[in-house]
Task: inverse folding
């Protein structure tokens, strides 16, 4: 599903050049659950952004679903992203002015689906995350765990093949964190590929494979015990 | 999708109440102000266009040019022009003349009489113009001589609830009351009509009391002549026939180019100041332009506000943009969304603005001296919709472009920096707004200063506590200048004898004209070298100069004791002495050859008997009218000559004094209406247009600065919210709250200073153009600009400090944690 070859990402300001990723080679197959770990500033999020087609690498190749996307325009990346990739963030990133239902429905709007279809899918996603009873609430009226469940519902509503999670439990207490991790594991069992950036070894235990990054390099790749691709 | 956008727009509108309020109210105020001024200017430009034949109706003018500046240009014409045009010009469809005089009108012999403006018109008046005859037969109207047509308002004044038709009305004509029958009711003239009327009588009837010579004379001009050309007529071709017509009409008196006749389109009358003022009033289009410019500036300020605030607000929408982009929004989705939001806001603001303008209309009418009403026609709705669309395009497109261009990862990571933005755009907009505001403030201050100057300038005579009483005496077949002046003096003496010794009336005198009448009698005469000389004249009694406190600098004033003064004495002003280059005027004679025996006995200071727009012109005054009238070649009146009695009164208990004057006047001149004015207020009324401008400029600049400050307030709070971390760090490092407040204020103060630098030359130029209209100008002091700049700095500091002081007091622990 994902092949990265010699990925390089350099951020430059007027005076300083920072290399966030350096010769990163990664392959992720469909149905995998991969955790990316490493200290702050090691390039985890940069990698996730490139995988999520939010950013272009400075150098190297990146293939997503068989398309070479390393040099695509923003518009082309957006087209490919729609419906294929779902995002989950540490800070949930729900739109405060929209209700739970409307937040979940939003990706479908941009896919141009009819209102009936949107309703059906959004409700199904909410049902799956056990959030139907909160469908008319606004994000601020929910607990952190509930907000993250809504964010997950939004990520999966369009049947995304890949879910990218950026420290999904970072803002949650351990109970809610576990809950979210269980949901992700369930999704993975149902066939969704998941790539998750995390600081927490506990969360990483849910993954089949852990990639350690340090200063922009892949240091180790470990298969977790008990998991087989 | 649309539903989603609208939902988001409304919810974010309500979420950020302060910004929404600032944004909407600022724009609404701008729109309201613009709507009102637009109403005013469109009214000005719509004058006389309501006549269905307005493209074929012209007002005739005459131009006599005898060389050497001896020019008489008039939009009032000889009576004889109508029959001449009818005979010589086949393209002429119909002609209606009209002239206006004031006289007494009453219902019956025993009734109270009203001084009324009476219009004498030809019967064609009713068919050329679109003034609707509400009652009466338009075919038959004015077929009799003693018919009168009234407006509903006047009909109601005379007859109250009775049916006015066929009722009798007594009108003073030629010194006696004559009976007229009401045969028609005509609609009130629209406010945007140059031709205003109340009581109409047949021209043929009015002519019976005029000097028969003046009806045939080409050199005496009285009525306005309105010409309706037929549909095929070509104006140039018609006017080309006029010289031949005049040659035939004048016979051997005709010299080529000396006597020209022409036609002015009726729709051109109201705003064309190049033509002399006839009976129809004329408005200076400059004031429309100035008002229009103020409205436009305010609207621009409001739009700029809207724009800067929307962009600044965008930071708070950045997260939303990031999320939307991440989950699949493309750039055009976001552009539509933000432009749609701008459109929603502008539609809301414009609607609110129209409501506000409706609410403010009565005040505006008072301010501008108009009677306008807002009518929501299809046109105005289209206009306002267009305005909303236009503003939303201008105000919404930039935010739409900027916001939709955000990089999702950056905004979600809180690393947002608007591309290439060092706040230059927003700073530029602040400078722009303040430049306009300071320009308006400085201009307003100068208009104020000039008006104060006009009001307080020493005019060279006593203007306070002087009451001017109209004697109601008019020139007529039996009443020449000598008769009316003598009669006025007789009334004055009678009045004097009736008042008690301890009366509040301290002094009184009679004269034909008083100051603040647009002009006195303008005359021309030929001097020994056959050169045309010009001067103004006035006929006064022996007490006038003394009573008015006009200073005699050479020679002496008129005296009752010296009997020859009544016959042969003339007093001139300094301007006349300078004009003739005399060293000593006393004992000299006016250089004309035909004047009766006379002698200049005194010279007065150049007192400002005219408006301060013009410098003092040469003036001669005598007690004996025929003395000055004898030697003149041409005479022109701005107002019909009518003697007035000026009374100097005590400053105490003025209402009581007025009552005393009214009672005495009733005894002195029974049946003459009591018609008085205070001299100072009629002098002030000369500057009514400037006063209106002042009021509108004050409101306009206040509004501009309010809107600009609303914007500044919003902007400051947004800029500060971005510097929370910086402020926190500074505080941790030991900065005091004061130093932080100063730090933030400094940034904006620099912008205001730049605005001052830009605004001052603009204001200086605009003001000097405006002041060119006045012969007497207040001096454009440097302090004025300092004050305007000071006001701007003060207001901006007050606005920003509310925010910066608050920011400076935030606990740094809190602000740093939030980063």
Result:
């Amino acid at each position: 599903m994902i092949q990265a070859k010699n990925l390089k990402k350099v951020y430059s300001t007027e005076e300083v050049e920072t290399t966030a990723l350096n010769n990163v080679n990664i392959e992720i197959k469909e149905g995998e659950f991969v955790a990316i770990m490493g200290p702050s500033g090691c390039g985890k999020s940069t990698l996730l952004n490139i995988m999520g087609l939010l950013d272009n690498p400075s150098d190297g190749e990146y293939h997503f679903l068989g398309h070479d996307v390393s040099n695509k325009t923003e518009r082309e990346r957006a087209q490919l992203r729609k419906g294929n990739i779902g995002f989950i963030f540490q800070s949930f990133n729900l739109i405060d002015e929209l209700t739970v239902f409307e937040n979940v429905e939003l990706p479908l709007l941009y896919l141009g689906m009819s209102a009936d279809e949107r309703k059906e899918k959004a409700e199904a996603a909410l049902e799956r995350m056990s959030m139907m009873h909160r469908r008319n609430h606004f994000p601020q009226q929910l607990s952190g765990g509930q907000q993250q469940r809504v964010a997950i519902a939004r990520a999966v509503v369009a049947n995304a093949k890949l879910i990218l999670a950026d420290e999904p439990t970072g803002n949650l207490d351990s109970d809610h964190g576990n809950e979210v991790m269980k949901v992700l594991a369930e999704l993975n069992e149902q066939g969704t590929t998941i790539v998750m950036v995390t600081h927490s070894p506990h969360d990483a235990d849910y993954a089949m494979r852990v990639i350690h990054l340090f200063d922009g390099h892949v240091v180790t790749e470990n298969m977790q015990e008990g998991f087989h691709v | 999708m649309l539903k989603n956008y609208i939902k988001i727009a409304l919810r974010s509108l309500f979420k950020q109440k302060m910004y929404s309020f600032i944004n909407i109210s600022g724009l609404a105020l701008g729109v309201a102000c613009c709507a009102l001024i637009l109403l005013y200017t469109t009214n000005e430009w719509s004058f006389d266009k309501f006549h269905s034949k307005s493209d074929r109706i012209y007002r005739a003018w005459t131009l006599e040019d005898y060389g050497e500046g001896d020019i008489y240009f008039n939009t009032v014409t000889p009576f004889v022009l109508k029959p001449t045009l009818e005979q010589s010009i086949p393209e002429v469809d119909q002609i209606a003349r009209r002239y206006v005089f004031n006289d007494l009108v009453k219902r019956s012999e025993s009734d109270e009489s009203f001084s009324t403006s009476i219009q004498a018109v030809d019967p064609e008046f009713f068919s050329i113009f679109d003034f609707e005859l509400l009652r009466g037969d338009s075919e038959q109207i004015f077929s009799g001589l003693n018919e009168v047509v009234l407006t509903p308002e006047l009909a109601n004044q005379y007859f109250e609830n009775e049916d006015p038709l066929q009722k009798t009305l007594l009108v003073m004509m030629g010194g006696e009351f004559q009976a007229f029958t009401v045969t028609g009711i005509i609609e009130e003239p629209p406010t945007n009509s140059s031709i205003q009327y109340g009581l109409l009588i047949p021209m043929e009837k009015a002519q019976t009391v005029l000097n028969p010579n003046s009806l045939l004379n080409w050199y005496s001009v009285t009525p306005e002549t309105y010409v309706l050309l037929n549909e095929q007529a070509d104006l140039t071709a018609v006017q080309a026939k006029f010289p031949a017509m005049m040659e035939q009409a004048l016979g051997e008196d005709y010299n080529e180019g000396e006597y020209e006749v022409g036609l002015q389109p009726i729709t051109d009358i109201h705003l064309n100041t190049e033509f002399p003022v006839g009976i129809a009033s004329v408005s200076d289009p400059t004031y429309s332009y100035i008002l229009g410019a103020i409205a436009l500036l305010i609207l621009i300020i409001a739009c700029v506000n809207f724009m800067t605030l929307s962009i600044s607000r965008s930071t708070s929408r950045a997260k939303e943009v990031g999320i939307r982009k991440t989950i699949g929004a493309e750039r055009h989705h976001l552009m539509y969304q933000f432009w749609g939001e701008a459109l929603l806001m502008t539609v809301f603001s414009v609607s609110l603005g129209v409501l506000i303008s409706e609410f403010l209309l009565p005040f505006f009418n008072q301010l501008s001296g108009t009677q306008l009403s807002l009518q929501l026609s299809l046109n105005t709705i289209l206009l306002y919709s267009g305005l909303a669309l236009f503003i939303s395009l201008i105000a919404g497109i930039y935010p739409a472009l900027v916001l939709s261009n955000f990089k999702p990862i950056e905004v979600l990571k809180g690393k947002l920096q608007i591309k290439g933005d060092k706040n230059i755009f927003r700073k530029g907009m602040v400078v722009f707004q303040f430049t306009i505001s300071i320009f308006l403030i400085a201009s307003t201050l100068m208009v104020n200063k000039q008006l104060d100057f006009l009001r307080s300038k020493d005019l060279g005579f006593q203007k306070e506590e002087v009451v001017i009483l109209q004697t109601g005496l008019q020139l007529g077949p039996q009443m020449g200048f000598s008769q009316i002046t003598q009669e006025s003096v007789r009334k004055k003496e009678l009045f004097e004898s009736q008042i008690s010794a301890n009366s509040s009336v301290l002094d009184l005198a009679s004269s034909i004209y008083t100051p603040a009448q647009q002009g006195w009698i303008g005359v021309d005469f030929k001097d020994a070298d056959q050169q045309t000389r010009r001067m103004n004249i006035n006929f006064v009694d022996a007490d006038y100069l003394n009573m008015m406190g006009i200073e005699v600098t050479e020679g002496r004033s008129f005296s009752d004791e010296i009997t020859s003064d009544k016959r042969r004495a003339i007093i001139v002003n300094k301007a006349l002495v300078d004009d003739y280059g005399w060293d000593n005027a006393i004992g000299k004679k006016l250089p004309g050859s035909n004047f009766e025996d006379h002698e200049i006995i005194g010279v007065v200071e150049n007192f400002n008997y005219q408006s301060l727009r013009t410098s003092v012109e040469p003036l001669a005054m005598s007690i004996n009218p025929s003395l000055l009238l004898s030697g003149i070649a041409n005479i022109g009146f701005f107002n019909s000559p009518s003697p007035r009695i000026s009374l100097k009164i005590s400053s105490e208990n003025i209402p009581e004094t007025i009552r005393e004057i009214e009672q005495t006047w009733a005894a002195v001149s029974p049946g003459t209406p009591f018609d008085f004015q205070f001299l100072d207020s009629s002098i002030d009324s000369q500057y009514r247009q400037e006063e209106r401008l002042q009021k509108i400029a004050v409101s306009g600049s206040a509004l501009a600065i309010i809107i600009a400050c609303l914007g500044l307030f919003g902007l400051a709070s947004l800029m500060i919210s971005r510097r929370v971390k910086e402020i926190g760090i500074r505080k941790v490092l030991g900065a005091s709250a004061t130093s932080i407040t100063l730090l933030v204020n400094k940034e904006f103060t620099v912008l205001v200073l730049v605005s001052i630098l830009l605004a001052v030359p603009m204001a200086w130029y605009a003001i000097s153009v405006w002041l060119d209209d006045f012969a007497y100008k207040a001096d454009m002091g440097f302090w004025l600009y300092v004050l305007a700049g000071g006001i701007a700095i003060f207001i901006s500091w007050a606005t920003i400090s509310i925010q910066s002081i608050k920011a400076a007091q935030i606990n740094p622990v809190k602000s740093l944690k939030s980063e």
